[in-house]
Write a structure and sequence with these properties.
The complex is a heterodimer of chains A (about 300) and B (about 250).
Chain A (H helix, E strand, L loop, with lengths): L1 H6 L7 H35 L11 H14 L9 H21 L5 H24 L4 H11 L8 H19 L2 H7 L3 H6 L4 H23 L5 H9 L7 H25 L8 H23 L2
Helix pairs in contact in A: 2-7, 2-10, 2-11, 2-12, 3-4, 3-5, 3-6, 3-10, 4-5, 4-10, 7-10, 8-12, 11-12
Chain B lengths: L3 E10 L2 E11 L4 E5 L6 H8 L7 E6 L2 E2 L5 H7 E4 L11 H6 L14 H13 L15 H14 L4 E4 L8 H16 L3 E5 L3 H7 L2 E6 L2 E6 L1 H4 L2 H8 L2 E2 L5 E2 L7
Parallel strand pairs in B: 3-8, 3-9, 6-7, 7-8
Antiparallel strand pairs in B: 1-2, 1-4, 4-5, 9-10, 11-12
Helix pairs in contact in B: 4-5, 5-6
Classes of the chains: A mainly alpha (about 300), B alpha/beta (about 250).
Chain lengths: ~300, ~250
Amino acid sequence: MGAALAGLFSADPPVVSVILAEIRLPRAILGLMVGASLGLSGAALQGLLRNPLAEPGLIGVSATASLGAVLVFYFGMASAFALALPLGGIVGALLAVVLLYALAGRDSSVLTLILAGMAVSSFAAALTSLALNLAPSPYAALEIIQWLLGSLADRSMDHVWLILPFTLVGWGLMLASGRSLDALTLGEDAAATLGVSLIRARAQVVVGTALAVGAAVSVTGGVAFVGLVIPHLLRPFVGHRPSRLLAASALGGATLLLAADIAVRLAPPQPELKLGVVTALIGAPFFLVLLLRNRQAEP
Amino acid sequence: MSLLALTGVSVQLDRKTIVHEASLGVDPGQLVGLVGPNGAGKTTLLRAAAGLLRPLTGTIQIGGRDTAVLDHAAMARAVAYLPYGAPCHWPMTVRDVVALGRLPYARFLRRREGNDTAAIDRAMELSEVTGFADRRVNTLSGGERARVLIARALAQGSPLLLADEPTAALDPFHQLRVMEVLGRLAAEGKGILAVFHDLPLAARFCHRIAVLVRGRIVAAGEPADVLTAGLIRSAYGVEVSSSGTFTLPGTYAE
């Protein structure tokens, strides 16, 4: 390890240094960024929708970002130039926001937003299946499926630089919504009479999620449940205050994803388990427990 | 100068006129009760007064200024609104919930200041919630919770308070506690407009009563002058028996 670090700064770096800089470092940085985006957007959406079960998948951003990336695969553009895939994902996520606002309107209720999100989500999933169905060759279909499983393996610093601006703007928008999310604790009417602009709060969270999660999904594929689980685990530690949960969930998400990625890298199974498979395996039962506990809380 | 002045206000929801040319005023030190049957438009009228709905016609003045020209921040300092059912979605501590009332005074990255803390303490004292300041709101009884949300509205420091059924779903003991708090606020010079369904309770504590029937204010004034047997019969469709209870027409009270 010491030799690898020292080698980073020499003119002719040894192989261990190249592995560290070219393979491990981008993988770790992407893990931290994607985890932070997922945790932060989960916390922001839960605050906005006042629903502990909300997460980026709920408003259709994950599904449309996936669709964007899958279309890039389908039309064979992924091999044409390296950054086609992330760009496809980000365009897909932004399209989700446009559709969401067209379906739900600018000042619609939370319920309409959730329903519109579900509609967008289902339609994107249907189109993704269609792309698989019409895939030109079994090999192309396999490539799409492998990507959909979600992974941080074999990513480069180019990916980091590409998603960095979208991610930072997304984080900024979501972190700026803290005060409004606190006010929304008292319901939309009381929040509005506390001087909060509901239209602006909704735009900050939804557009922020689209940018950060769209960018994240486009380089990692589907990594589910981090946005749901992390805010939940951390909420009691910040006194249940939505504004304080934002930064905490970003840090928590980053930590969880980095740890999960190291685990799949070191775990024995070959081929390597996909990160998205592992988070879903842990996340889905957790989601079920949440649902059951919620039902007990409000009969 | 009155804190709230509605003049000929009509409000539409989904192109249906809910409130017809209502005129109503609240002065400093007054607790004004808004009563009327279900679906009369009481909540709609209150939400319009809070700036949540734009009136179709007429003017709404708060502190002498037209709400059409007031921005979000100015409205937040002038009027506090307590929605029906005292919603509080996250189980925060009582003190944190009351502190939400200071949001209109918050600036980006500014820490809470001395006068914020003073306003929060004072609001908790007036609403008698200081004793359980560190409990989580989800562990409180309905009556305690109602007072916490009143304290939240008080912490906002606005001279006018609009409350949608602050005594809903409370037992008689907690109803009286809430009414006492509202009465004390009026005595301190605040103006309060609140929706009530318990007519005897409203008559006992309110300085003035306005009766809304099918979107129109059919009577307004001192409780004793307004809440007559004839008006209650025409507004609610119930008879007032000699013992003061309400009965359906054609039946007799024992």
